[in-house]
Design brief:
- Two copies of one chain form a homodimer.
- Chain A is of the alpha+beta class.
- Chain A has one domain: Glutaredoxin (3-Layer(aba) Sandwich).
- In chain A, 58% of the residues lie in helices and 9% in strands.
- Chain A contains ten helices and four strands; from the N terminus they run βαβααααααααββα.
- Chain A has helices spanning 15-31, 43-48, 55-58, 60-76, 92-101, 107-119, 128-137, 142-149, 152-167, 189-208; strands spanning 6-10, 35-39, 175-178, 181-184.
- In chain A, strands 2-1-3-4 form a four-stranded mixed sheet, sandwiched between helices.
- In chain A, strand 1 (6-10), helix 1 and strand 2 (35-39) form a beta-alpha-beta unit.
- In chain A, helix 6 packs across helix 7 and helix 7 (128-137) crosses helix 8.
- The longest helix of chain A has 20 residues, at 189-208.
- Chain A is globular, with a radius of gyration of 17 Å.
- In chain A, 39% of the residues are buried.
């Protein structure tokens, strides 16, 4: 039987995923709740809604608001933020690497490094030069990782994860799933962790006493 | 010189506007900040984005999520909630009445009554029979209100307010504007009130001492 966790579904091109990625481990440590990092791709999910771009580009008023909101939010959370010169950046390669990193235990630090490169340093995370740097920055060998990241099996795994996101009702990022319950947006991170404690951790603790 | 306030922009058909309408006066009393109720219409604003319906209907995954989120949110806020059998309901008539109510000081209780009818009692707020009941429930004479609500001047005033919303960058409801700063969504209500205190009330208090 799998142990339930707080599934953190994120996309490297997504602004609010950046904020959530930087907050989640601290909040999960304070409130309790194991976090499972689940990189996926928004592209196919937006395409299914009829969008060929980020809604923040398709709907300009929403986009202008989002950039201002990110400035305020990052200031409050004391997160560095520089508006990327390209948006959204293609997170495909970084997501493939993150999948390789998952079973090896370096997915969280690598993912934070990718988000920091994209949203604090305006680096192009879609190219291997950048991703290789970030792999090295968390103490892994870029060449060995590259090969596994681009294996047919790993490509398939990312595709499967994105399809799972869609099946679970995910329509944007970040999203959190806790015991089948979906929470959408960085704003709902605390609610997702509270749900874990109330609906999963406490009943389990009760059951074993 | 006009006194700055926390502008609360809402639409009677909007689910999250209901939650914000029920919370705002209590939170504003706790945190300080005069609230200005600003009913407007989302229809023309969605139309400008190319939508002829609520995004919660146009994008089914988003819609399914919203209804579940509303259940959770209303339970937490201890607000009654019944999913309306029709969504979104046309808030035009109620918004016209709310505009009549503003200068007379009964806009807030009337607006809460409309939201309660729509989202707790599943009543059809688009028809005069319902709206007349709600006007009477806050101690006003429906017949006298009806005439003023449907005057050319009042119709024009609602149109102008909706155009102002659009000019201010509003793209959804509820929204809050505080000293030119836009906040979107019930989730941002606390932020909007904090902004008022930090950026408007405290500097003003400093300036007068």
């Amino acid at each position: 039987m799998s142990t339930p966790a707080v599934q953190f579904w994120y996309e490297f091109g997504s602004t609010y995923s950046y904020v959530a990625a930087m907050r989640i481990e601290r909040l999960a440590a304070e409130r309790g709740g194991p976090v499972e990092w689940r990189p996926f791709l928004l592209g196919p999910i937006f395409a299914a809604q009829g969008w060929n771009d980020s809604p923040f580009n398709l709907f300009p008023a929403k986009g202008r608001y989002m950039w201002r909101d990110m400035e305020r939010l990052c200031r409050r959370e004391q997160l560095p933020f520089r508006k990327p010169s390209q948006f959204p950046r293609n997170g495909l390669l970084a997501a493939r690497v993150a999948l390789v990193a998952r079973p090896e235990g370096w997915c969280a630090p690598f993912s934070r490094a990718v988000f920091h490169a994209n949203f604090a340093e305006d680096r192009d995370i879609s190219v291997w030069e950048t991703v290789a740097d970030l792999v090295a920055s968390v103490g892994r060998d870029p060449a060995a990782v590259y090969e596994r990241a681009l294996s047919a099996e790993n490509k398939e795994a990312l595709k499967a994860l994105t399809e799972e996101a869609q099946r679970c009702g995910i329509f944007g990022a970040p999203s959190f799933i806790v015991g089948g319950e979906l929470f959408w947006g960085n704003d709902r991170l605390e609610d997702a962790l509270d749900w874990y404690r109330q609906e999963i951790a406490l009943p389990r603790a009760g059951a074993t006493t």
